[in-house]
Amino acid sequence: MTTALITGVTAGIGAAFARRLASGGYNLVLVARDTERLRQKATELHDRHGVEAAVLTADLATEEGITAVEDRLRDREHSVDLLVNNAGFGNKGRFLEVPVSDELTMLKVHCEAVLRLTSAAAESMRERGRGGVINLASVAAFFPRGTYGASKAWVTQFTQGAAKDMAGSGVRLMVLCPGFVRTEFHDRAGMNASSIPDWMWLDADRVVETALQDLARGKTLCVPDPRYKALLGASRLIPRSVLAHASSTTGRKYGPK
Ligand SMILES: NC(=O)c1ccc[n+]([C@@H]2O[C@H](COP(=O)([O-])OP(=O)(O)OC[C@H]3O[C@@H](n4cnc5c(N)ncnc54)[C@H](OP(=O)(O)O)[C@@H]3O)[C@@H](O)[C@H]2O)c1
After folding, report:
1. What is the pLDDT of residue 244?
2. 256 C-alpha to center of ligand 1: Å?
3. Mind telling me which InterPro entries this protein's record contains (predicted)?
4. Angle at the Cα of 214 (from 146 to 169), degrees rounded to 5?
5. Which atom of ligand 1 has the smallest separation from the CA of 176?
């Protein structure tokens, strides 16, 4: 049986990956911080799909958390065939409103954890000559949008570069760049998302379906919706200063402090 390890699996896009992969017969390793929610998910997935779902509580903003997941990915007796680096969050506020320590936590989860977990997984996958890694970035990677956009730009460049370096090894790496997806993300970040027009919202299950199809096709970058593909194409024709204004205002209204 094949096994997938998914980070940030208690909600949103990670939970959608877990549902979709369990329905396809994957055994799962479920990673996040909330043990109770992880256990509930594991039971639910096991009962509904008959797969094994192991719980690994880890805070990817900490050294111990990252190490625990690295160790699991390096376990040659229980190999992981697909890694989904999905855990992530937004900070509440703009530059200088967010404490630098929170920005550094974001870089730890979005960049350091992704680098280390991708490396641990890809190394053992290369030995077996097969495997896949999906790293969650965002369309924000293509726009000036604070530390969040910058961290996702790093994920995008890193993943596409690593995919090129791993070409011919049997290991596929792909970066997934969705637009706005209805999840817990915006509430958790204290964002008031009411100004985001309906047409910009994507469904997590459809995002996941497209991502898995694109990984199977060997793509290294997945923008999982034609509307956002068109938006990205059009953005190349717009002056950077106009883009910076639009991207720093869209969906960045914050509730009371
Ligand atoms: N929603 C969007 O509009 C959107 C758009 C583009 C890209 N993305 C990206 O998609 C990914 C998933 O976001 P989502 O929208 O599904 O968000 P979400 O609903 O808020 O879920 C985030 C998940 O990440 C986990 N997580 C957060 N911090 C963690 C940490 N330090 N260690 C371990 N797990 C942690 C959370 O679980 P616990 O709290 O239990 O740890 C939760 O399961 C993120 O990387 C995000 O940047 C989201």
Report:
1. 72
2. 22
3. NAD(P)-bd_dom_sf, SDR_fam
4. 95
5. 7
How do residues 163-200 score in pLDDT, each as one tens digit? 999 999 999 999 999 999 999 999 999 998 898 999 99
Core vs surface per residue 58-94: b (16+ CB within 10 A) or e: bbbbeeebbebbbebbeeeeebbbbbbbbbbbbbbbe
Q: Is the shortest distance between the CB of 143 and ligand 1 below 6 Å?
A: no
Q: Is 214 in the pocket of ligand 1 (CB under 6 A)?
A: no
Known catalytic membership, residue 254: no
Domains of the chain: residue spans and CATH: 3-254 (3.40.50.720)
Q: Is the pLDDT of residue 251 over 70?
A: no
Q: In the chain, what percentage of residues exceed pLDDT 90?
A: 87
What is the position in ligand 1's atom list of the atom closest to the CA of 7? 34
